[in-house]
Amino acid sequence: MILRLRRFIDTRLFQLRGPQAGPIVLVHRKLYILPTSHGVVYFLVLLLMLAGSVNYTLSLGFVLTFLLAGLGLNGILYTFRNMANLRIAATRPRPVFAGERAQFVLRVENQSSVERFGLEALAPSGEVATFDVPANQETLVAIELPAPARGRLPLGRVTLQTRFPLGLFRAWSYLELDVACIVYPRPESPAQPLPPPLSDHGEGAASLVGNEDFAGLRAYHAGDSPRRIAWKADARGQGLLSKVFSGRAETQLWLDWASLPAHLDREARLSRLTRWVLEADAAECAFGLRLPNQTIEPAAGPGHRSHCLQTLALFERD
Amino acid sequence: MTKSLDPRNVTWMALSMALVMLPHVERLPLWISLLAVLVVGWRLYVAWQGMSLPKKWLLLLLVAAASAGIYLSFGTLFGRDSGVALLVVMLTLKLLEMASLRDAMIVIFLSYFGILTEFLYSQTIPTALLMLVGVWVVTATMIGLQWRGGAIRYQDSLRLSLQMLAQATPLMLVLFLLFPRVQGPLWGLPRDAYAGITGLSDSMSPGTLSQLTLSDAVAFRVQFQGAMPKPTQLYWRGPVLWYFDGMSWHMGISFESGAPSYSPGAEAFSYTVTLEPHDKRWLFALDLPAKLAPNSRFTNDFQMLSITPVRQRMRYEMTSHTSYRLGYEGLTSFERRRALQLPEGYNWRARALAQNMRRAARDETDMVDRVLGMFRTQQFFYTLTPPLLGEHPIDEFLFTTRSGFCEHYASAFVFLMRAAGIPARVVTGYQGGELNPVGNYMIVRQSEAHAWAEVWLEDKGWLRVDPTAAVSPLRVESGIAAAIPATDPLPLLIRGDIEWLRQLRFTWDSLANTWNQWVLGYNPERQFWLLSRVGLDRATWQTLATILVATTTLITLMFAFAMLRRLSRRTRDPVAKAYRKFCRKLARRGAPRAPSEGPADYAVRAAAQLPHAAAAIKAISERYIKLRYGRPRGGESVRELKRLVAELKV
After folding, report:
1. Which of A309, B202, B208, B309 is most buried when burial is the number of CB atoms within 10 A of its CB?
2. What is each CA distance from A70 to A9, A44, A63, B113, B147, in whole angstroms?
3. Interchain CB distance below 8 Å, A77 and B311
């Protein structure tokens, strides 16, 4: 019942239609404003002052009371203006591991010549980020959310609010931005040793270390490890080149879901595979990933690493 | 929300509180002011040293001790003065308890209330200005409290506060003029609500009026319609005193039974009196009034009494006849007894003198002339600082000291008349008035307080006799400042010898008069008068409320429209404008700026996409970055950027 009421309020009163792609502009009908508890007290005090002015026939008391009443009403306009026409877009968040905190960055742009002060972004988790946006500028606002489980962590509904300038009114708007953080599975701890690498021909184990004979240079591709870049060649002005090692190409490491002990459940397997991906990447060796009905061919470098981690993160989630 | 308060915020709160409290200091007991200073200093020390606030029990102890102190100082906790003292103490102690934004807001609201309490004592223009500054600073402090994003910049919150208050002014005016006024009070006022108001009282003893004369406070102002009476006709009738106890004169019983027989002379003056509140019932009018002010009645000795004490400034239209016959149809035996009453056993020499003079006089009129002649020809002096009188004041005055103020002469004159068997009484009021050429009205001050006598003669009725005029004709013809020796203390404002000061004073009083008439004296009657002027003759409060709501809404909507228009209008920043134009140009060529792209990244990509314009793109972007994020911003480089964007060909 309460849930239905809540949904009714959300869709009818606040006209929330789920996350929206692209930037949100706070046009007037998306902004709401109500007095704060301080505002209610303020107007009660004014009533008291009015009664006092009538009782003692204080003309200047009337002047003061009415001036403050005008100030209060003016406060509505100022608070409303402090939020109106802001343009808010989310940037793509950096992936994190489960158990860490995901950081979402909102870009709040003020295209007017009016400075905005004392804005607050309320995360769904209840955390508050306070910021100003100077005239004709933009401010980046970081919102942190705990990321307890792997998968896609949507930002959810952010409340942008302000009480500026008087604190008597609160203007707010609900932002439902279509942005999510990829949460990788939590790496297993303590780490289990990597599975033995296989030679290209599949004939038993081969050593991971050694055999790294320099084989030559080739053009840099995005994703190549920075450690492999021939910096000297770059310094000579030959552009970015990556070193190729012969031994490496022949030893291949497969991180295989099926080869894990049978007693491990799905999350434990993903956790272990995640740890192995990190270790293999740190050791700078090429590795492949085999999951049920999904295989990533062996490769190396940060691009490959994030591809593998993302696959693990979203395994049976999307 | 429970963010601790910034020391700068605390400092500003202390400052705004000091502004609110300052005018109260002169009226508060010294220990309260000292306590306030001490507590504020303590709070500032705590804030800047980052120490913790005092414990709850200590605060409770302080509150209890201060309340006890106030009770001891004032004898009550529920009066006007003790209430204000309580507010001051609680406000300062609240500062000591203030830890969160919520507490701070309570202090702000109490400060606004503190400003209101100042108006209980004074509503003059300087007070209004000082309190306006108070509202400004308190509001700025409140804005500073909300500013939790960046650093607190008080010049900004002061500016914003001023701007918001200025914009609230039209609304304030509408509310002030149209808000349905109810005549107070709504509930009982504390007994000391009108303490400290000067004015005439219902008794007179030697020194009463000369004390009053030292005050330059305005008693009332008069605007004449048409001709003005001569200075010697300016007798403003007030309390009439019948009963003499040997030292002081008292009203005794006065009957509010309607006026006695009265026939006015031909000469009539019409005027409007604006009476300052004096917490008594007398309404002053030129001797003698021909009609009643609203809500008032005449007594049998022609005092005009308001139904209720005059506690607000009050206006009434009046007509007076300066020549008249009063009570010529005869005295009742009761009146005659009262008009001849004298205390037994005092002032023997004066009694003997009166009886001797009466025997020598041809008739009663001659007796009056003889006494006045004595004052005129013998060595009597008119002074503000007469010697003190002892047990037989009339004897001592007539035979020994021979110098006195109007109350001495009036008192001695009436005494002699009564001792000679002529019914007589003392009339107090004001004599004279100063014409303000700036506003063309007359100011009557407390310093013009005066006492004269009335005697009752067969067939003539009550006649006004001013013995002071016999001693010092200047007093009546030219006013008190001319009559008093220059060595006597007189308020600076009523001395006439400094010309520019006089001019300044007239201008100031004219301003104060307008202020009184239109701001302080704006009451239900004025409101209806104003509404009838704009064609709303029988405005009910419903009509008033409708107009009020409509006007308020209209003004608010106009402001809202103006403010939001300013917001939605595209920015006037030329740099941003030029850059947007640049982006639009590139977008038309298929290289739009991605939402996540900074200007540097965008320049690299756009240059790669549009190689023929690469140099121009690079130049414009560099210039833009320098203007946007760099330090100095000259008009020349902005023009250069605009030129480059205009010349860009892609």
Report:
1. A309
2. 32, 14, 10, 16, 21
3. no
